[in-house]
Amino acid sequence: MHDEARYDHVVLISIDTMRSDALSCSPRPLWPHKYRDVHPVRTTVLDELAGSGAYFPNVISAAPYTAAAHGAIFSGQYPLHNGLHEFYNGSLRAPSVFTYGRRAGRATVLKTDFPIILGPELGFTREVDTYLVEDDEGFIDAVLANDSTVACAHFGAVHSPYGFHNLKFGGDAYREKVAELTADLPKSLPFTDLLVESYRDPEDTRLLVHYKRAIAYLHSQGQYDRLLQLYLDGVQHFLETRFAPFVNRLRERVAAAGKRMLLVIFADHGEEFDERTNGHFNSMAEAVLRVPLIVVGDDVAPAVHQHRIRTVDIAPTVLELAGIPSPATGVFDGDSLAAVARGEDTLRCDAPAIAEAYTSELIEFVTYQQRQLAGQTPGPLRHYLIGHTAYLDDRRVVRLTRQYSEWFQKINPTDQTWVERFDEEGVPVPDPDADGTDLLAMLDDYRTALREPEQVSFTDEIRGQLRALGYSV
């Protein structure tokens, strides 16, 4: 029997776009099997945290983009079940870790680097008492201002522009990196990705667009090793300049206050570069879907658990470890791994898993977002299923229905299905002789839950919340 409310503060930390094997302590990294001219980087702070807690290096995300991935993590439900499955449409309708935290009398705090995505438009601020944007110190203050909390700090700096996020955090190093990447670019390039996840001033917007143009150009030239190295270097820069100081301050202040903290670190998706994938944009690549999970707490036993789990397992695991009441059955698609984290049980096999990706025409989404940021009613945004994958035992099936052309100028219908087997190193290898009937049935059964998505409305209430945060909308 474990005491209730064992931790005063339950702090979740989301590192957006952190592929599992970006950590140098990853026991079975994928990238050395694929990239020849890439070297590992220092991830000291995460390596130390992984060594002091329950480390799960093989966690399958429910979606390769921020909104649907976080909705699944917070709710413990797959996207088609929680109301938020498309790239942008919909709203998180299911109870979340914040819902259960509030019911238990805890204050709830959410800090994000991506307010356009993890904000009120898509339902992420429901049940959140304190909502902060790009305010690391304010997050720590908000946690310590309460006797008990369920809180999440989301960091977007591993996402492109890799390591910097914006001028506030990147400073002159960011300006110098953009100048370096764009020095030799052709003067005229095709349309590129103009989407933003946060509110930026003109210089910040210009730098981001130039950075994205450089990445798109390098990808068009097949410079995949250089792109992965750029990404990994960004991981190290973020961890050393922003993340490690944040975690150290958080832990020191919680300890000084005589409080106990359950620290849960995870990612929503990873990043990959090859002929089919440029980053993570609606990709079914294994390196995009495989993310890390680290759980650190007083009753958590240090260990590495290499069997496959799912991001939908995170919510029920965290709530049980923290002693926060939640429904025992019928709500979560994931399973609680609290006993595993405490060292009372072991993972005996790989869990079955599903991931799915929806997208829209990039030009349509850019136009939609520009109307939205101008305070106009953005109207409908068409989405398409681009692909999905199912995992069972040592196999997975991938089925693609649409694929972007180079430079994301067009999304074209396609019909590609293949089965992969994971070798002893955890690397997926195509197996043309494998029977994927049962895996495809998993996908078909899951899609019976498909519902018509809600249109995102940019209401006066949302505008008011954004103005209160200092944005002009």
UniProtKB/TrEMBL annotation:
<dbReference type="InterPro" id="IPR050738">
    <property type="entry name" value="Sulfatase"/>
</dbReference>
<feature type="domain" description="Sulfatase N-terminal">
    <location>
        <begin position="246"/>
        <end position="324"/>
    </location>
</feature>
<dbReference type="GO" id="GO:0004065">
    <property type="term" value="F:arylsulfatase activity"/>
</dbReference>
<comment type="similarity">
    <text>Belongs to the sulfatase family.</text>
</comment>
<dbReference type="InterPro" id="IPR000917">
    <property type="entry name" value="Sulfatase_N"/>
</dbReference>
<protein>
    <recommendedName>
        <fullName>Sulfatase N-terminal domain-containing protein</fullName>
    </recommendedName>
</protein>
<dbReference type="Pfam" id="PF00884">
    <property type="entry name" value="Sulfatase"/>
</dbReference>
<dbReference type="InterPro" id="IPR017850">
    <property type="entry name" value="Alkaline_phosphatase_core_sf"/>
</dbReference>
